[in-house]
Specification:
- Helix 3 links the parallel strand 8 and strand 9.
- The strands form three sheets. Strands 3, 4, 5, 6, 7, 14 and 15 form a seven-stranded mixed beta sheet that branches.
- It contains eight helices and 15 strands.
- Helix 2 packs across helix 7.
- By secondary structure, it is α/β, with parallel strands linked by helices.
Length: about 325
Amino acid sequence: MTKAIVQQEKGGTDKLIWQDHTPGSPEQGEVLIRHTAIGVNFIDTYVRSGAYPMMEFPGVIGMEAAGVVEALGDGVTDLNVGQRVAYVMTTPGAYSEKRVVPAERMVPLPDDIDDRTAAALMLKGITAEQLLFSMAPASAGDTVLIHSAAGGVGQLLTTWAKAIGCTVIGTTSTPAKADLIRSLGADHVIVSSKEDVAARVAEITDGKGCASVYDGVGKDTFETSIAAAAKFGRVISFGNASGAVPPINIAVLAPKCLLLARPQMFPYIAERADLLRAADNLFAALRDGKIKADISATYPLAEAARAHDDLEGRKTTGQILLLP
């Protein structure tokens, strides 16, 4: 019998229960995966709490993982037993020792990409890839603002945007994280708990503002993002770490002719070809040293509640993993 973190109802971390769990057998087009590393993301906390109604209860949360193929269902011809793979999916279920998954959502791992790196970066890395190359393409010479630049996606955006040739302004609410953000290549760091972010951006850019603002924080930073954007700039609100952005009158965009987007990664990789293209771009950036996995902490899978407490308490940086 294998085990998993099972939730009977939505709620806090006390609802995450380590218990026996049967993954089942793969059917047509499916494979059985033995997980070796599991990514932890803010979206997991939203699903756990019920803020994102993506799971029926009882259920198993978790959107990304890496592992080894243990069994093939009928019709699966492009994967092999023993092959290393990773995935990010819209269907939760990764907080488990083993899981049956659709073969078409599996990304084969090349020999030079280890399991922990893949598990840490499938969701965050492909999110950063989508934001920088599809949603609001960054170009050399752009000045960009990245909120929560010490966070998992924030670190990747910072280093990748710098590699593209952008001038990067990163924010953090914690002075202790400022040096980390500078070490990632950020040209300027603003400590939002001590400085007026919009005013500092205006000072840094001679009043022009930023071509793109990447905002994964949500409610607490949205107005600042609008204020910090340049004329004809783009505000990309892609996360709710501080809560959902309240309803707004879109007329606030008019004075600067701003573009506002609230993207989600999954539509961009709905087709297998797009998934593999994004993963290939991600793996190439890792090989070239443009980005790296910053795995700041690992937790036993059985201690998923502690991982969530640390994540929501802003005690972590970079990426964190659960290990079965």
